[in-house]
UniProtKB/TrEMBL annotation:
Gene Ontology cellular component list: endoplasmic reticulum membrane; endoplasmic reticulum-Golgi intermediate compartment membrane
GO biological process: lipid homeostasis; regulation of lipid metabolic process
Superkingdom, taxonomy of origin: Eukaryota
Compartments where found: Endomembrane system
InterPro entries: EXPERA, TM6SF1-like, TM_Tm6sf1/2
Record-given protein name: Transmembrane 6 superfamily member 2b
């Protein structure tokens, strides 16, 4: 006799794959008469459907609705009931859903969407990389079920989308003229906005190092003090906060340093793309991290202590806002970051990570 408790998880995986295939076929068939020129259209259309599922899951776990996801919650992916995952699902169901609708609309109208696309790619790459690694490294690592493997689709697609978008021609020219040359001749002291952003980036680097060392179980007294009195959530056994801090420590920290360099050295054309990608990643991570540390499903010992509440909240909000402010500055006034054809006898030197 077949044990239903053993077969149910595989049935959920099969249903999940079948639903994704059917949704793809639906969009493929209805666009046959006028097929989109960008294949990412189908990715955005497919994922917009899953956004509704994620939002439904989050609402049900929070008790706002009921009766929609009970079976899946028990036999599919039980870790979706953690505070971090609930906040992640809210972000996917609202923020990502809006991004998909806008990008689908722009593809349909034959308009550029590269800027929003890079922000989305950063957001979803961070979302899924922390989510998958957190499941494996946290307390749910021993409860992995077949539906878990579907998550890799939602990691590989934004990675592929990011590569596609990074290699697409930019929406703006990379070569500047007289105005760009004038902007690049100004020292940092005469660019107060850039000076403030550099200071914020340096503070963000220090904050990243501190929390990264906490996640690495550093014996430093400062790390122990911060963990105990400010963010005990970093040691929540679900694993997500720790994994997120390690992501930011090993991947975010070099980018923060690169952005400082980009604000000091003129002509770094790569700033326009990488600031967008990183802004999307950080704001998604911080949304889930802040929300998770305040959520009722996080046990009391791991929530922000009352006496440090406003200090921790302010620090985390500033940390989330800093990459967004840098990206907005680069997008709104890109003259400092354009290349300039040097006059005879002149040379232009800048680290380049752009193709």
């Amino acid at each position: 006799k077949i044990n239903n408790s053993n077969t149910e998880p595989y049935v959920i995986l099969e249903i999940g794959v079948a639903v994704l295939v059917l949704v793809f076929l639906f969009y493929f068939l209805i666009t046959r008469g006028n097929p989109p020129k960008d294949v990412l259209f189908f990715v955005f259309a497919e994922f917009s459907f899953t956004c509704v599922i994620d939002l439904t899951s989050a609402l049900e776990y929070d008790g706002i609705i009921s009766g929609f996801m009970e079976f899946y919650q028990k036999t599919g992916e039980p870790y979706l009931g953690t505070a971090y995952a609930i906040m992640m699902c809210y972000w996917d169901g609202i923020a990502h859903f809006i991004m998909y609708l806008v990008m689908i609309s722009r593809i349909t109208d034959r308009k550029a969407y590269r800027t929003l696309g890079l922000f989305w790619a950063g957001s979803l790459c961070a979302n899924m990389s922390v989510f998958i690694a957190g499941i494996v490294a946290g307390k749910y690592g021993s409860e992995i079920r077949p539906a878990f493997w579907l998550n890799f689709l939602f990691l590989l697609m934004p990675v592929w989308g990011a590569v596609t978008l990074f290699t697409k021609p930019k929406d703006r020219p990379l070569i500047g003229g007289y105005n760009a040359q004038h902007a690049q001749s100004m020292k940092l002291i005469w660019r107060p906005l850039d000076l403030i952003l550099v200071l914020l980036l340096l503070a963000a680097m220090a904050f990243t190092i501190l929390r990264g060392l906490v996640a690495l179980d550093s014996p430093l007294e400062a790390c122990s003090f911060y963990l105990k009195h400010y963010e005990p959530y970093l040691k929540d056994p679900v694993g997500y906060p720790r994994v997120m801090m390690l992501h930011l420590f090993f991947y975010g920290l070099p980018l923060l340093g690169a952005f400082v360099y980009g604000l000091l050295k003129p002509g770094c054309t790569w700033m326009s793309d990488w600031t967008l990608f990183f802004a999307g990643a950080v704001i998604q991570c911080q949304w889930a991290h802040i929300g998770g540390s305040l959520h009722s499903r996080t046990t009391a010992p791991f929530r922000i202590p009352n006496e440090a509440f406003w200090c921790v909240l302010t620090a985390n909000l500033l940390y989330a806002a800093t990459p967004v402010l840098v990206a907005m500055r680069v997008q709104s006034n890109p003259l400092f970051f354009l290349q300039i054809h040097p006059f005879p006898g002149q040379t232009v030197n800048c680290l380049s990570v752009d193709s």
